[in-house]
Every structure is written in C-alpha cells, then in structure tokens.
Amino acid sequence: MRTRPGARAGQYAALLGYLVFLALPFLWLLSVAFKPARELGSLHPTWIPEHPTLGNFRQAFDEQPLLHAAFNSLLAAVSAAVIAVVLATPMAYVMARRPTRLARAASGWVVVSQAFPFVLVIIPLFLVLKNLRLIDSVPGLVMVYVVWALPFALWMLVGYVRAVPVELEEAAAIDGAGRLRTLVSVTAPLLAPGIVATGLFAFVTAWNEFFFALVLLKTPEKQTLPVVLTHFIGTEGVADLGPLAAAAFLATLPSLAVFAVVQRRITGGMLAGAVKS
Amino acid sequence: MSSATEKRRTARRAPGTGPPRGTAGHGAWFLVLPALIPVLALSVGPLLYGILLAFTDAQSGRTAPTRWIGVLNFSDLLHDTLFWESFRIGLVWAVGVTVPQFLLALGLALLLNEDLRLRWLARALAIIPWAMPEVVVGVMWRLVYNPDAGILNETLRDLGLGDGRDWLSGLTTALPAVIVVGVWAGMPQTTVALLAGLQNTPRELHEAAAVDGAGAWRRFRTVTWPALRPIALAITALNFIWNFNSFALVYVLTNGGPGGRTRLPMLFAYEEAFRYGQFGYAAAMGCVMVAVISVFLALFLVGRIRGGDDA
C-alpha cells in the first residue's frame, strides 16, 4: 500500500519518540552503573561516564550477598519452571484436544486466577507455610511459584498443542501405534519447542517475582535477587546509586538473555493462547 | 467459553465426524490431575481460607485463639478513611496507567505494522521493559528521577525548564511520576498483543478500502478497529486488573509516600498484614478488592468470548 511522503515522515518522527521513551531510562541505568562515585556526586550528570569503572560492581558484591541471592533466584526459577511445565503439559494436551467439562472449568479458573489481589492468597499461604516450617525456605517459595506460573504455562501450551495437526496423530494411530506411543514419538517432538519456550517464560516470571519472595523470605542469605536489591535502598530511601545500578543491571541480564533468544516464540505462544483459548 | 463457540470450533476442526479427535480419549481426566491438585491446594484453598480469615480477628503472634467476629472487619473497613483514600489512589493509578498505556501501545503497534526502517530496533527495545524485573524498573526510574544525579532534572535544566525538583517526594508530583513508570513498564505487552491482533486483520480489506478512496482515519475506523476491538477490550480489562493489583513498582519507587499519596491498596494491605500483623483485617481488604475486580473480570470474559467468535 502506498503512503504519502508527509505521512511517512510523521510515522518516523513518532517511531523516534517511542525509541527515545523506551531506551533512555535503560541507558541511564547503564550510565550510572559504570560511573565512579565522584561523577555521580557531580551536579551536572552526563550520559557517558568520563572515567568508566567496574568499581560499582565490586562494591555491590561487597555490600550485599549478591552471589547467594543470584543462586537462590536461579534455584527457585529453574525448579519452578521445570515443575510447572511438567505439571501443565498433560493438562494442556487435554484442554486442546478434548475440552471436557473439567478441563473447561480449569481453563476458566486460569483466567480468574490472574485477577487475585495476591494479598488475599499470601496471608493464608503464609500461615500454612509457617505451620509446615516452609517459611524462609526456597522450596516453600518454589511451591508458590509453580502454582503461580501454571495458568500462563497452560495458556501457552494449549496454543502449541493446537498447532500440532491432529491428522499426524491419527495417521500414527492408523499405522497401529498405541496412544502412549503416538504421544511420545509423534506429538512430543513437535511440541518440544513450545514446551521450552513456556519453560523459559516461567523461568523469567519467577526470576523477576518480588511480592511473594518479600513476604516469605526473611533471612538475607535465603532471599532472592529482587528482594536483596531493595536493601541497597536504605530505610530513609537514600540509596548508594552506583552499586544499586550495578546490581540492578546484573539482575536484569538473565531475563534479557532469555527474552532475546525466545521472544518470538513467547509472544507467539502467549497470543495463540490468549486469542484462541 | 460459550458452548456455541465451542461447537463451531469443533465443527471446523473435524467436519462431519462428531467429537474432537486426537489421542486424548476417554479417561483423559487423569491427565488433568497433576496440574489441578497443586492449583486446588495452593490457590483455590488459600483463597477460600483467606475469605474465611476476613471474618476473624486473626493476628500474627497472638497467643489467644482466633475468634469468629462476623462482619466486624468489614464495618471497620467501611469507616477506615485511610483505606478508602488508598482505594481512590488505586483507581486513579489503574486508570491513569491503563488508558495511556493502551493509547501509546496502539500507536506503536500501528507503526510496527507498517513497513518502517527502524522497526526491528523498536521491537528489540520493547522487550526491555517486559523482561526487566519490576524491582529493577523501579530502581532505574529512581535513578532517572533523582533530584541531583538524575538525568530528568539535568535535561530540564539544559532546556531551561526550571531548576529541577524531587519528583518522587513532591506531594503533587509523586503520583503522576509513578504513573509514567507504570505506563513505561506495561506498554510492551500491550503493544505485542495489539500487533498480533493487527496482523490477524485481513490485508485485502485494507486494500479494498484504500481503492475505494478511504483515508487513513477512515480505514482505521471501519476496518482496523472492528477487527481489533475484542482483543483491545480484553487486554484493557486485564491491564486494569493487573495495574490495580500492582505492588513492586511503587514499593520500590516511593514505598507509598510521600504522606500516603502513592499508597496503592496492595501496599496498604501488605503493611496491615505484615507490618502490623492484622491478618483478618488485611484479608477483608483483599475481599473488597476482589469484589471490585470481579466487575472488570466480567468485562474481560465478555471480550474473550467475542474474541473467540471472531478468531
């Protein structure tokens, strides 16, 4: 379709505006992370650090148990992702292929559960986990994350199952393959990329999660990265800007990496679920 | 999901052969259990327990047994001006974030749907806010808003627009300042959803309309928008709910301050439950929030059913 030159120019101007709005805050975070304390104290901050340094990163590791926190985050996010996908895949399969009343009720619940104010769920969970002595432990947090990741995992997976042609399964059945055999050797391989994308998305949501971790984890050595990050901001709200920015930047890297790799699949899968389920 | 929608979809999938096919035959209910049991145990269960708690005087660290007190928490809540103030702030915040978020996302989605040169860069950048932990987004914008070392004030000074101020601690500026952050953080998801909706609208319709001499605005109104409406409605209702429930962003940016001007309902309930130990009272707050949200959830479900019909 042809577009008039004037309109084109307007479109580029608008796009430029969006690029600036989206990129500048992140670039500023990078700038602060690599600036020495002296430049941060200056009254006229600059975009590019004059004497870039890694000192903020070293200081961040000295001030807070970042390595511990990163390990806890990794443990929680990987376990939650793996368990959520393992639990969700069979159900997604049923929901996509044979929407029984139970599966449909579950699908309705998936939507409803997105709408809870978490505080209504966290208070009872806090009490129950406390009685089970699972407060202040990563396994307790993982249990919460799994359930929290299930709705979206289901949604994405249903879309991926629908994309596998039923005809392939039928052909295998006609060729004499049993139900299990068909699932394992025909459906599963085609579903694998979708399962991986779903798992990575669950990983990112758990890696980024803050509220449950804040409530459930009390000892500094047990806390995840987002919670530890808030310790850089003192009680008075005064922050040591350099180390804060350095730590914040590090905390973003894993999810950015995951998104960069599977962005297309994640958005595709989520939308397939959201639009069609 | 309406049964009419379901029937139609089934019919499309397997013309004239009855029920949906595939290897999930009878007895497939068994496959639902692994996901269903944890969900029942850790979300339906706690939800019901939470509603029960709202009718008790449950507190943390109390030795006396918890008692059933009926609707006392709710009648107290009715007179709690601080709660209703936070409720009002929550609504202002949710509307203030959701509406610009939608409009900006719609604009960006329309741009990304065109054949523009820097499209890939915009797509790549749109991932950043989405992938970032909310805590990091909060930290990042604190650095931008910082009264001395922040880039916002420096830019304003350079442009000759005032001497800079402490945006996040100003009584009048704090809420608008956090709203901007909320818009920034949530815009990408909305953009991607709308972009997918745009790509589902048939190109031929556009071209036919263009041949008929319809201008850009008319083509948008008569072709694009009708196709986009169901998904737009659904995403807006969901965004509103998510925004109303949000916590981490504002917790990091202002922790509800200054003077409670940005104290969203979730922050209020969190403090009530985990700082003052008033579990029953906080649970009652959660119930009130659920009641309000249900209205928007209904809107979303309506939008989704329509979306299903159009898909």
TrEMBL record, chain A:
The keyword Transmembrane applies. The chain crosses the membrane at residues 12-34, 74-96, 108-129, 141-161, 182-207, 244-262. It is a multi-pass membrane protein. InterPro entries: BP-dep_ABC_trans_perm, MetI-like, MetI-like_sf. Residues 70-262 form the ABC transmembrane type-1 domain. It is found in: Cell membrane. Keywords: Cell membrane, Membrane, Sugar transport, Transmembrane, Transmembrane helix, Transport. Pfam families: BPD_transp_1 (PF00528). Gene3D superfamilies: MetI-like. Its main location: membrane. The keyword Magnesium does not apply. Belongs to the binding-protein-dependent transport system permease family. This is Multiple sugar transport system permease protein. It comes from Streptomyces rishiriensis.
Automatic annotation (TrEMBL), chain B:
Its main location: membrane. Keywords: Cell membrane, Membrane, Sugar transport, Transmembrane, Transmembrane helix, Transport. It is found in: Cell membrane. Gene3D superfamilies: MetI-like. PANTHER family: ABC TRANSPORTER PERMEASE PROTEIN, LACTOSE TRANSPORT SYSTEM PERMEASE PROTEIN LACF. Residues 1-21 are annotated as: Disordered. The chain crosses the membrane at residues 28-55, 91-112, 124-144, 167-187, 227-253, 279-302. Belongs to the binding-protein-dependent transport system permease family. It holds the Pfam family BPD_transp_1. It is a multi-pass membrane protein. Residues 87-300 form the ABC transmembrane type-1 domain. This is Multiple sugar transport system permease protein.
